[in-house]
Amino acid sequence: MKGVFSAFRRQKLSKGKFGSYGAYAFGELLLIVLGILIALAIDNWNQDRQNRHLEHYYLTGLKEEFQQNKIRLGSLIEVNRASYQSAGDLADYLVSPQESWDEHQLSQQLFHALAYEINYNPTQSMLQEVINTGGLNQITDQTLRKHLAGWEPFVQQVRWQEDALREERQHVLNLFRGDSGSIRTVLEDNDLATQEMGLVANPDPATNQQIIRSRSFENRMLMYLLTAQRTESELYRPLMQEIDIILELIKRELN
What we know:
It is built from 9 helices and no strands. It has 255 residues and is mostly helical.
């Protein structure tokens, strides 16, 4: 094509037909511009297709990740709720003189209230990959980008609250480390000392009835109960709602 235009240009110039040459020169320039524009359009199309493919990869991975995180959080909420409900039963027992638990019942309530350390540990490998590689820019939905960017700060707030809950739980457990309490009795009454730890059963088990009647135990148990309830109502439930929002936004983008 370039050879044709060059020959034609030489022919017109030799004959002095500058007007015709100008028209053909314009046509040659137009073809060059059109060629550049078509090449840019194809390049942009390919880049857009690659971006959409990468976005789909990210969204699929994030969907699976947040579905797992939802299951983990749901299980943790159940464990935390069972713990503070047992703590509530203990608190009610302390002000119910007409009700009397034997040592075995008391040990079971203490174990259910204090045995489990509450710690939410979500999977974040895909989200970290998206953030660390600048992949958030590949997410076209601005609302989804905002929620994904705010996930880690939200989880950090949960960890701070869990640290406070862990501290309150430890305050209660510390009461049983002295001479007034018996951890062994609690373990034996929950079949842990002999069956799991392989210890010989104590023929004369100590009682924890006295320590739970102390004002110190009641105060610390109530603080633990309050912190556990607040952990669910102020953080776990809102976090579950946040997960549902993210999953719904991802679903909308994938459809």
